[in-house]
Amino acid sequence: MNARIGWIAFNTFREAVRDRVLYNLIAFALIMTAAAVLVGQISIQIERIVVVNLGLTAISIFGIIIAIFIGVGLVAKEIEKRTLYTVLSRPVRRWEFIVGKFFGLTWTLVVNTFFMALGLFAALLYVAGQYTRADLWLLVALYFIVLQFFLMTALALLFSSFSTPIMSSVFAFAVFLIGTFADELHDVAQMLPGVSKFLVNGLAYLVPNFAALNVISQVAHGEPIEPRLIALNSLYALLYSVAAISFAALIFDRRNLK
Amino acid sequence: MPVIETFGLEKRYLVGFWRKRERIGLHPLNLSVEDGEVFGFLGPNGAGKTTTLKLLMGLIFPTAGSANILGLPHYDHRVKARIGYLPENPYFYDHLTAEELLEYLAQLSGVDARDRKRRVQEMLARVGLTESSRMQLRKFSKGMLQRVGIAQAILHEPQVVFLDEPMSGLDPIGRREVRDLIQRLKDEGRTVFFSTHILSDAESLCDRVAVIHKGELRGVGAVADLTSRVTGEVEVLWQGAAATPALIALGAEVHATGEIGRATLAETQLDAAIDAIRRAHAKLIAVTPVRSTLEDYFVERLGPGASTSDAPREKTGVRG
């Protein structure tokens, strides 16, 4: 990573922190505390399932919301406020700006996820009394959630490179919902005739497969994750993010700033 | 050797929602600015000054034509490290302090890490913001933001500095400070290209000016030449109220305040006017040829109907 991308990423992270994005951690802490206390009366095994399910789902939802809402404004805000003028009149290439913004927001989300994960593990210790070997799979689930954030941030940047922030948010949410039900979409496609089958199948392949990155239920039940899935998901998220960011940079490179 | 050259640089926009119409932001512009010059880009609001600067900065793309800066295409990556730019009504990251902003922009300009802190402090001192350096920019006034804008434009010691309306939003003291700063940049051998609609600033600072109106270049000239053209009139200043009727009788435009009289008349009537003053036993104070001003040139270039008031004339000359 070149130095300019690093500085842009750092400034994006600093802006997110100073704009109080990390305040969502307070809401998360309250959810985890309430969950840990409330499930105290249920039996040991279900306590763990509830806390893991709730904790990982909250981490995922909070992060996706941040990725979409901050992501669609990353470039639009800089154009609107014209802060971009003093950046792009320097030896900064437009693609470097896009990539820097991407890393800035994903780094913010990684830090956010790290603190939430600490809260989740603390809640888990509180309800279960001790950690087991199966808890290690939680780290894989958290890693997959971070991969979801990479995809969502890349898509938010892509949509905002040619659309307004509001429309970009709508597109991003739609893609997230479709991607979450990508497997079901394939099932639906099997029941359709001819061209419709082809189109629905195409859509299911086009949107990122968030379903494949969701192993919350498995790890809540202490089931292991196959190493092959970890490798394939990593490769998939990497390729998809690179493609989305490349398109975003390509579009932004030709854009007249108002 | 020219440091800025444009070759038929042109910008057209499509406006309207349903029925797109073409609007010309900039007619083909051919311009060249020499090394070390302070070049004023003059025009009324909406004339195309900002469009030209945005084209040169690569923020918008030309419909036709090209531009070179420092002998390279204006969009070349290497050019950007050697130029500075102050946008019109600059706005910066709210969450940063002035010091942090300059540090960030110095990093992006590739200023060496060892020099960075020193350079930032020097710039803050140069624009008079040392005391506010740790205050978040959201709390800055318009004038303070303008100063930060100027500091960031010259932070990396660029060879060519582009300033879009640098005096905008500044009080008289601030304007004077910016004028001094531009003069200092010139003394340091840098080329300054600045847009303005305040003619007195251009007249006091620029070596050459260009006038642009409705996206079209209307004229280019050296300020010294434009302001040294004699108009064929002289201004006479004297002490002694008794001479006033004689001067009026000569057809001069006379303004008298107490004992001091001032008359503007044709150069051919100067001898008669001096005789009249002597005959009235009044004291001749000064005779000054009336010269054209930049404003005269500006109004003339803009064409009929462009001016809203009569252009006042400025006097320069030898005391009598």
How does this model look, in words?
The complex is a heterodimer of chains A (258) and B (320). Chain A is mainly α and 258 residues long. Chain A has one domain (3-253). In chain A, 79% of the residues lie in helices and 0% in strands. Chain A contains eleven helices and no strands. Chain A has helices spanning 3-18, 24-38, 44-80, 83-88, 94-128, 137-160, 165-180, 182-191, 194-206, 216-220, 227-253. Chain B has 320 residues and is α/β, with parallel strands linked by helices. Chain B folds into two domains: 2-223, P-loop containing nucleotide triphosphate hydrolases (Rossmann fold, 3-Layer(aba) Sandwich); 230-315, ACT-like. Chain A, domain 2 (Alpha-Beta Plaits), CATH 3.30.70.1150. Chain B has helices at 49-56, 77-80, 98-109, 113-126, 142-154, 172-187, 199-205, 223-226, 244-249, 270-279, 294-302; strands spanning 2-15, 21-34, 38-42, 64-69, 72-73, 83-86, 160-164, 191-196, 208-213, 216-222, 230-239, 253-257, 260-266, 283-291, 314-315. In chain B, strands 6-7-8-3-9-10 form a six-stranded mixed sheet, with helices on both faces. A five-stranded antiparallel sheet of chain B has the order 12-13-11-14-15. In chain B, strands 2-1-4-5 form a four-stranded antiparallel sheet, with helices on one face. In chain B, helix 3 (98-109) packs across helix 4 (113-126). Mean pLDDT of chain B is 88; it is low at 307-320. Chains A and B meet through helix 1 and helix 4 of A and helix 2, strand 6 and helix 3 of B.
